[in-house]
Amino acid sequence: MREQLATMTTEAHRPELADIDRLPTLDIARFMNAEDATVTTAVAARLPQIAAAIDGVAERMARGGRLVYAGAGTAGRLGILDASECPPTFNTDPAQVVGLIAGGPTAVVNAVEGAEDREDAAREDLDALALTADDVVVGISASGRTPYAVAAVRHARALGALTVGLSCNEDSALAAAADHGIEVVVGPETLTGSTRLKAGTAQKLVLNMISTITMIKLGKTYGNLMVDVRASNEKLRARAHRIVSLATGARDESVETALADNEGEVKNSILTLLASVDAPTAARLLQDAHGHLRKALEAAAA
User: Fold this and answer.
1) Which of 11, 116, 189, 265 is catalytic?
2) From the CA atom positions of the chain, what is the Rg in Å?
3) How many whole angstroms separate alpha carbon 134 and alpha carbon 115?
4) Conformational region of residue 104, where left means phi above 0, alpha means psi within -120 to 50, and beta covers everything else
5) Which keywords fit this entry according to its UniProt record (predicted)?
């Protein structure tokens, strides 16, 4: 293990930072900020691989599949964070995008020692989901060698699911195990081996792309408007009103009426206003268009 870690970029030591603890706070902050600025360049170098993976995810989800993230520690928490944001942002069922972390829910807030080494736990966690060939499993690991993440990808692939391996080292076991390998090499961390820093930032950026672009391709947006937002609180209800206003240019009174008639559904309200149809017709058009607002508008105009 020590020899293996010594070869990883994410574990590399930076002797020039040996006195970082003696620097003024502002100097350390400036250095970390400059380091973070390099992450987007590292992600940009892998955009073709990221796009190819997203196309695969969207294709599987369009036919009813799920997106499952699997990782340990910071990587697992980032997957759970991304998954948990999908229902309020895109009105997805909580079972559509799922985050798995080595050690289970306890590991979200407390480290569970040794959990990342349990390959059997990864297989058990996926089997509990009754994984199918329509699903996608994204293994996340900064090192690219975490047994839990690698085992999850291998097991999912054996079951016929599409697999993605997201790591921050080249020639990683995780990328090799997956259908789509994404290796975002961000270089050594400010604190040796602390991959919640640049590696974590890179993983967050890629996960943002995977979920957001997939949802765009699934018709969860209209332009750059979140038309599938779930208006579950006052802020989101106000946002729903604003989205309908931006999409239609309608007056506040008309927007309020449309939202009321469509039980707060943003897509349906927009369709009601732009196509001059009633709520039941809007619901039918959207159902026939599999939720794609643009397609529903085209059908209404035909």
Assistant:
1) 116
2) 22
3) 28
4) left
5) Carbohydrate metabolism, Lyase
Return the ∠ at Cα 204 (arms to 90 and 54), rounded to 5°.
60
Are 135 and 60 spatial neighbours (Cβ–Cβ below 8 Å)?
Answer: yes
d(CA 274, CA 248): 6
70: exposed, middle or buried (Cβ count in 10 Å: 0-12, 13-18, 19+): buried
Contacts of 245 (CB under 8 A, 6+ apart): 252, 255
Of the candidates 16, 35, 59, 85, the residue annotated as catalytic is 85
For residue 121, give the H/E element and its range: helix 119-127
More confident residue, 287 or 6: 287
Write the pLDDT tens digit of every residue in 102-116: 999 999 999 888 899
Give all strands of the β-sheet with 162-167 in edge-to-edge order: 97-101, 67-71, 136-140, 162-167, 180-183
Q: Is 85 a catalytic residue?
A: yes
Q: What is the mean pLDDT of residues 105-133?
A: 93
Cα–Cα distance measured from residue 205 to residue 222, given in angstroms and rounded to the nearest whole number: 22
